[in-house]
Amino acid sequence: MSIKIGIYGYGNLGRGVELAVAQNPDMTAVGVFTRRAPDSVKTLTGIPVFAANDAPNMLGKIDVMIICGGSATDLPQQTPALARYFNVVDSFDTHANIPTHVASVEAVAKQAKTTALVSAGWDPGMFSIARLYADAILPEGKDYTFWGKGVSQGHSDAIRRIEGVEDARQYTIPVAEALNAVRSGCSPQLTTAQKHERECFVVAKEGADLARIEREIKTMPNYFADYHTTVHFISKAEMQEKHSGLPHGGAVIRNGVTGMEKQNKHVVEFSLKLGSNPEFTASVLVACARATYRLNEKGEYGCKTMLDVPPAYLSIKPREELIATLL
Amino acid sequence: MSIKIGIYGYGNLGRGVELAVAQNPDMTAVGVFTRRAPDSVKTLTGIPVFAANDAPNMLGKIDVMIICGGSATDLPQQTPALARYFNVVDSFDTHANIPTHVASVEAVAKQAKTTALVSAGWDPGMFSIARLYADAILPEGKDYTFWGKGVSQGHSDAIRRIEGVEDARQYTIPVAEALNAVRSGCSPQLTTAQKHERECFVVAKEGADLARIEREIKTMPNYFADYHTTVHFISKAEMQEKHSGLPHGGAVIRNGVTGMEKQNKHVVEFSLKLGSNPEFTASVLVACARATYRLNEKGEYGCKTMLDVPPAYLSIKPREELIATLL
Prior knowledge:
- Chain A is an alpha/beta fold.
- In chain A, 34% of the residues lie in helices and 26% in strands.
- Chain A has eleven helices and 14 strands.
């Protein structure tokens, strides 16, 4: 008996979900739901395409709907709306608004007896879990999150808005000295700007003033001004060839102490190096869809997060096999 | 309302539990239970000492008993025996026998309506959880576990049994090239011996044949013969000064692939650098005691492992705070 997955939204994340479902033999992708004209969308693996508005008609044909919209405007509306009909998973990642999102989805899902798992992915998601375990085990300590090396869409977009810029890609990179200090367990005080540097690759329009573009980038408040920032001007061909991927990653590290005199230092680290940010996030969402299906079968209705899910629920393997082989 | 913790067994691990409970304001250590004469045992923080045989008389006065015995002979007997009376946590770590241990504890705990969380710690424990998450998220991939740098008690004991050896300490150390190859995501084939080397510090008895001792160590089957092993002869004073701690650690790494052509590589790593192996393990057991208490309150009786526990159950912080601050 296969878990029937619907994919709501078909950008990078939706395509990643389609591919991840194909890697999990206990699941079937029923189809993609899009706001575009369904005829205009070709799926990677040939699964059917439906109009987003037709989703409610698929009641009973989908076990879990994975919602692949954006956090700014899509998910706050889509997740509660779809939780009326389906078990759902989303990757809502506007950290400050997660409590509000959880509350709005909880009300709908409890009422509809569906299960919603929101804010899944790697941050929020796997990084949140890593923070929680380390914090629970070592109550006296200090947490650090480093992001990168990876492409930041927001920072890339900010550069693209500068006059004379044709295309841009910005990599967030952890500062090696800061990372090493934290890994050594010595609990330094570090701001976000002290932990990260920013490397920018820019394709300028013909005749543009490169010095002005570089100055505008490096002095841009919030985005770059506080950071050590480097700017490289490259050709359109080089951008295409070397910077078309979407790698990302990072590390969550806790420095903690134990002992009679707090004399014993411990360093707990969870780190990711991701060849494709959207495909890894999609892979997390798909494992979460399995957990969501199981929670719903057990009568656990309402809005959950990855912090609420027993790890074993994410795995295709039976509990006995997990105990015998992974424990 | 404080969670009342009993500590059954008072070696390095039991002392670590006593100190860890003191770091968690929602818990109280009720006392230590020992097979030695209670009068002969002084606790680090002054908590009372009881005879192990008196434990059943403490029914109702202890919410969770943390059992700090050894895996070879203590825990297979103690954990089922105590689960008749108490919610219990143990660190049973003989990997091959975990399924049997789980089954024997399950029978007692289900019947007694207690909750037992067994095989907690870091391996088994946090490393098992790391393997499970990475395996569930990236079903196509390869797992690696590196241990160290850390003291192996078993290997240290093996050296101490050689004629002419007064004391010995053996460090298991990951081979740097192997670790780097795995971290780069290139999924090498590696045996345990290719992943680890062994460094031995030996205090020889006066007049002992050092060359023979070194030869006997390096050729010892299973323990050393397959490994790159180095032997240093040192003084008793140096042993005392530089090698009296019990550091350990290691890393669980998964190399996985996603994408239409499996072209995107991902590296997921969970690593530990522990100043004190027993104190860190104890800190895990204490967080697990909180989870065990909560599981029991929810009517989840029987034998659990860390793979079955929602991460949020381990934390002192309310769920709303976890969602607002860690997610």
